[in-house]
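Lab notebook, bench 4. Continuing the backlog of folding jobs that were queued last week. Each job is logged with the same field layout so the records can be merged later without manual cleanup. Today's entry covers ABC transporter ATP-binding protein, a 323-residue chain. Filled in by technician R.K.

JOB TYPE: sequence-to-structure
TARGET: ABC transporter ATP-binding protein
LENGTH: 323
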Amino acid sequence: MSTLLQVKGLRTEFATRGGTVKAVDDVSFEVRPGQIMGLVGESGSGKSMTGYSIMGLIDPPGKVVGGSVLFKGRELVGLAPEPLRQLRGNRIAMIFQDPMMTLNPVLRIDTQMIETVRAHRPVSKGDARDMARAALVRVGIAAPDERLLAYPHQFSGGMRQRVAIAIALLNAPDLIICDEPTTALDVTIQGQILYEMQKLCRESGTALIWITHDLSVVAGLADTVSVMYAGRIVESGTTEQVLGQPRHHYTHGLIASAPSRNVRGEPLRQIAGMTPSLLNLGPGCAFRARCGGATDICAVAPPLLAEGGRTLRCFNPLAPEAP
Ligand SMILES: Nc1ncnc2c1ncn2[C@@H]1O[C@H](COP(=O)(O)OP(=O)(O)OP(=O)(O)O)[C@@H](O)[C@H]1O
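JOB STATUS: finished
OUTPUT FIELD FOLLOWS
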């Protein structure tokens, strides 16, 4: 099938007093229309910055310093602000952990939604209002006419996030990047939103990149998973491959330490050691200090192995389990 988004060798750096932080370091992946990709990793691994880099939302002292982001064949790296703005909220949308990154606290919901539609297409206010109403219904908001007249502070956290999702859906984008949008919500609401997002994607062919540290979320949602560590993707493949038979020691550690894998009465399992600083990271595997499989060779840059749709950056991967 055709490729919707092709990210190749993407690199984003922050100039800090202590030196250069390589937040996104040679990241590559592809997303097809309608595909749901999970981007997982611990806090600080570069997931959000990868999403922001694709969206052209990196602010100084950060900068995309290399690589390519092809969206429907068009290069987004280096694209001028105006054409980028036209793509955002129209063909590509982003949903943030905090819905107030999307919502304006002083405007009524109808005003915000109508403006979002009319910024990208020449429709009447009445038609834009109908589209806003339909989007609220799609995300499961009851009494949409009443809700359209409300201000963001009149909604609960879960409802506010639903409105932010409805705004992202307004112009039927080809791609939505979701940055932990359900993390702050209670488990029941999180489950409902995940279910609705998956359904919407399946129905409309919208592709999703779902950024999360929570493996249980991607297990039920994503078609493919990419695992990030210290700014790099260390393993990717189908969800079954990566979560069912991890080959990278870091992926294995993440799965083993997931809260759902812990047994009451036994000590909580964790990956030993600390995530490294992204300042002055050398070329070798950044996980080697915490890795049970590390050998001397891991001090040099690990090769990118590709096998049966899976990619892996490791000299000493875990053996595939016998079928
Ligand atoms: N303004 C900044 N100045 C310097 N470094 C930054 C800045 N913003 C981000 N970084 C660096 O980028 C790295 C990646 O951050 P990012 O937010 O992408 O991580 P993440 O995996 O999304 O984590 P989280 O789940 O906590 O959001 C951070 O570890 C930090 O070192």
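OBSERVATION: The radius of gyration is 20 Å.
SIGNED: R.K.
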